[in-house]
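Case 301 in the screening queue. Each case pairs one protein sequence with one candidate compound; here the compound is flavin-adenine dinucleotide. For every case the pipeline is the same: read the inputs, emit a complex structure as tokens, and attach any notable structural observations.

Predict complex for case 301.
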Amino acid sequence: MQQDAIIIGGGFAGLSAAYILARARRHVTIIDTGTPRNRFAARSHGVLGHDGKSGGEILSEARAQLLAYPTVTFIDGEVDSAAGAIDDFHVSIDGHGTIATRRLLLASGIEDRLPDIPGLRERWGKTVLHCPYCHGYEIGGGPIGVLATHPMSAHQAAVVADWGTVTLFTNGMPEPDEATLALLERRGVSLQPGAVSVIETGTCDMQRVRLENGRTFDVKALFVAADLHIRGTIAENLGCAMEDSAAGKILTTDAIKATSIPGVYAAGDIARAFGNITLVSADGVMAGLGMHQSLMFSARS
Ligand SMILES: Cc1cc2nc3c(=O)[nH]c(=O)nc-3n(C[C@H](O)[C@H](O)[C@H](O)COP(=O)(O)OP(=O)(O)OC[C@H]3O[C@@H](n4cnc5c(N)ncnc54)[C@H](O)[C@@H]3O)c2cc1C
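Case 301 output:
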């Protein structure tokens, strides 16, 4: 049966859109591989009414609530491709065949690519962190590192200084300009030039940052701005316009989260710089409203 909407990605953005469509009694299928971006962190913070719950717990509660709506279908699977045009898209799902739909929401998120430094990846979401607003409070002050990966890393170090005493490891990045150096000094950030060779376990639950020159620094946590990439090639193959943001490439959307391709919407980290659960949930709600209004006012409402 043709769906009113198919949602690719049952994370925070996708499920938020699904509520709107389900409550408008529209037939909506959500397809999800179950790997949300924050799966590496044991707890999520700053989410209204859910502070400290795991991301997985928040998502499974939402999923259970959504399944109470008779027009909602969930498929645990991976979308391989999507093609077609407004009112007649076809979505191919690995092992589940093809489903037809009138509207499509891309909510499949982004991937964080980390610098290739031994010891970094396995600490991601635990003591190697991306955002002080999400996880800075739990560090509880003390020495904190910031690994430079991006021209904005010095700015990140200046911000993180509100959560502890910060060392910025420049790791081969160019030295900040004079104004930035003055800002870092004002914020009490110290600079460590030299390449980082490995992140090890230090004493007393500390993380040890070892430089190639042999110097070591124990920190309670290390902040890193990962390289952000849109997951998969579905948006690209559909021809959706993209733009550069300060955080990497994102899909271009309008105020109701419509992409450049009629009938295709995008919400969440895939279509915004610097997402968090609350912001991407709001995007999902907007996309749900946009899709519903578009269905309502089309010739075949
Ligand atoms: C380590 C870490 C910790 C974080 N902690 C917090 C926090 O404490 N508080 C906070 O507010 N924010 C936090 N964030 C940010 C937050 O996780 C993201 O902003 C949010 O997950 C983005 O939601 P989304 O729905 O856009 O994408 P995601 O949550 O990444 O969901 C995308 C979904 O799409 C699915 N998918 C992908 N490709 C396909 C496909 N081809 N077919 C089917 N399904 C597919 C994936 O399995 C996934 O479930 C954290 C991020 C990271 C990296």
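Case 301 observations:
- Helices lie at 12-23, 55-66, 132-135, 153-160, 178-186, 234-238, 277-296.
- The domain at 3-111+227-296 is CATH 3.50.50.60 (FAD/NAD(P)-binding domain).
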